Amino acid sequence: MRICPKCRKPVEETWTFCPYDGTDLRPGVGKETMPLVSQKVCPKCGAKYDSRTRFCMKDGTELKTA
Prior knowledge:
It is a single chain. By secondary structure, the protein is mainly β. It has two domains: 1-35, no CATH class; 37-66, no CATH class. It contains no helices and five strands. The protein has strands at 2-3, 10-11, 40-41, 48-49, 64-65. The strands form two sheets. The protein has a three-stranded antiparallel β-sheet, with no helix packed on it. A two-stranded antiparallel ribbon has the order 1-2. The mean pLDDT is 83.
């Protein structure tokens, strides 16, 4: 596990972008951000997430495919 330099949340070693804030995690790229395509949505609050995220970070509800 490594830590996203922007949001400080744990991210997988193999991930290219942070699923929480879109930060580019590739070595040598810098601290630019690139948004990820949201593919899941929280049915309770409407928050959108990357397909790798399973539960809403705001309320814990299981996400549904958009």
